[in-house]
Specification:
single chain, Rossmann fold, Helicase, Ruva Protein, domain 3, 2 domains, two-stranded parallel ribbon, 14 helices, 13 strands
C-alpha cells in the first residue's frame, strides 16, 4: 500500500478514537497524556506502568477506559499477603469427580489492572512475567493461552516505599511504557472538585426516578475493532530515516560518547536493550494512528520516547549521588541526536 492509501485507511479505521476520548472525559478531567498512553497500550498490546502519587486518577482512568471497550476486565489489588495463585489461579480437587481441575485466576481477562503492583512480594510479581511476555499461564502441569487482546496496566506509588517490593529490572522491562502522572492544573483541579463533589453527593440517586448519571460511560468499541486497529497500525508507514533515528537514539543510551555525550558515560550503567527499539517503533506507529495519520514523523518518536526509555536506563551510583534522573539523561540524548 502507498502512503496515501495507508493514510486514508488510518483515518477511516481510527474514527473510534474520538468517541473513546469523549466517554473518558466525562469522568477524567485533564490527564490527556496519560489517557493517550493507555490508549496506545491498548491498541498495541504493550503493557503500561503508571507512576504517580495517590489521588491523581490513575486507577479511575484505567477503569473508565476499560468501560468504553466491550471486553473482559479484571482488577487485582496487590497486597503484601497476596499469593501467586491469587493472580494466575490454582488446581483444586473436585470431590464429586475425584479429579483435579484448574481454577483460573483474574489474570485471565483482556484488560488487567494491577493496582499498586509494588506492594506485592517478588513471587507474585514474577507470576506476571510469563503472562506478560508469553501470553500464557501455567497452572499445575497445564499451560493455558490468554485470549487476545491481553494488556496489563499497573500502577505504583513512588513516594511511599515502606512495606513495598521494588520491581525487578526484568519485570520493569516487560512494560512497553513507564508513564509518570503529574498534578492537574489549578483550572483542572477546580473542575475536578466541582464534578466529583456533585457526583459523591448526588451520584447515589442516579438512575432513580429518571435521574441521569452524567458520569456514566458507554461502551463505544469492542475487541474486534481493537484487533482490526492493531492490524492497521502495522501498515503505518515508517521511513528508513525514522528507523535509523530510532536506532541511533537507543544505541546512544548504551554508548553516549558516539552522540557527543561523553559526560554521560559515567552516568549510565546499562543502556536500553533492543526491546526498546521495538517498543519505540510500535509506540510511534500507534501515536501516529491516534493522531489519524498513516505515517510516522520525528515528533511521534519524541512524544513517546521518554515513556519508552525512562525505565530502561540503569543509572550508575555517580548519577544517583548527583541526583541526575533518567528523564534528564533521555532528554539530553534526544537533544543530541540529529532529527531527520
Amino acid at each position: 500500500m502507498d502512503v496515501r492509501s495507508v493514510n486514508e485507511m488510518v483515518q477511516r479505521e481510527s474514527a473510534f478514537i474520538e468517541p473513546i476520548l469523549h466517554e473518558v472525559r466525562k469522568v477524567v478531567v485533564g490527564q490527556d497524556e496519560m489517557v493517550e498512553r493507555i490508549l496506545i497500550g491498548l491498541l498495541t498490546g504493550g503493557h503500561i506502568l503508571l507512576e504517580g502519587v495517590p489521588g491523581l486518577a490513575k486507577t479511575l482512568t484505567v477503569n473508565t477506559l476499560c468501560q468504553t471497550v466491550d471486553a473482559h476486565f479484571s482488577r487485582i489489588q496487590f497486597t503484601p499477603d497476596l499469593l501467586p495463585a491469587d493472580v494466575v489461579g490454582t488446581v483444586i480437587y473436585n470431590q464429586k469427580t475425584g479429579e483435579f481441575t484448574a481454577k483460573k485466576g483474574p489474570i485471565f481477562a483482556n484488560l488487567v489492572l494491577a493496582d499498586e503492583i509494588n506492594r506485592a512480594p517478588a513471587k507474585v510479581q514474577s507470576a506476571l512475567l510469563e503472562a506478560m511476555q508469553e501470553l500464557q499461564v501455567t497452572i499445575g502441569d497445564t499451560t493455558h493461552k490468554l485470549a487476545p487482546p491481553f494488556l496489563v496496566m499497573a500502577t505504583q506509588n513512588p513516594i511511599e516505599q515502606e512495606g513495598t517490593y521494588p520491581l525487578a529490572e526484568a519485570q520493569v522491562d516487560r512494560f512497553m511504557m513507564h508513564v509518570r502522572v503529574d498534578y492537574p492544573t489549578p483550572e483542572e483541579e477546580r473542575t475536578i472538585m466541582e464534578r466529583m463533589s456533585d457526583h459523591l453527593l448526588l451520584g447515589p440517586r442516579a438512575g432513580e426516578e429518571g435521574v441521569p448519571d452524567p458520569m456514566k460511560v458507554n461502551k463505544v468499541t469492542d475487541i474486534a475493532q481493537i484487533l482490526d486497529a492493531r492490524r492497521s497500525i502495522g501498515h503505518v508507514y515508517v521511513d528508513e530515516k525514522i528507523k535509523d533515528y530510532i536506532v541511533e537514539i537507543v544505541t546512544t543510551t548504551r554508548n553516549p560518547s558516539r552522540g557527543g555525550l561523553k559526560d554521560l558515560t559515567d552516568m549510565i550503567a546499562h543502556g536500553a536493550s533492543p526491546r526498546a527499539s521495538i517498543a519505540l517503533n510500535v509506540a510511534s506507529r500507534a501515536h501516529a494512528f491516534v493522531k489519524h495519520r498513516g505515517y510516522v514523523t520525528p515528533e511521534d518518536v519524541k512524544s513517546i520516547g521518554m515513556d519508552v526509555l525512562r525505565h530502561r536506563i540503569i543509572r550508575t551510583y555517580e548519577a544517583e549521588a548527583e541526583e541526575i534522573t533518567s528523564d534528564q539523561i533521555v532528554r539530553r540524548i534526544f537533544d543530541a541526536v540529529e532529527v531527520p
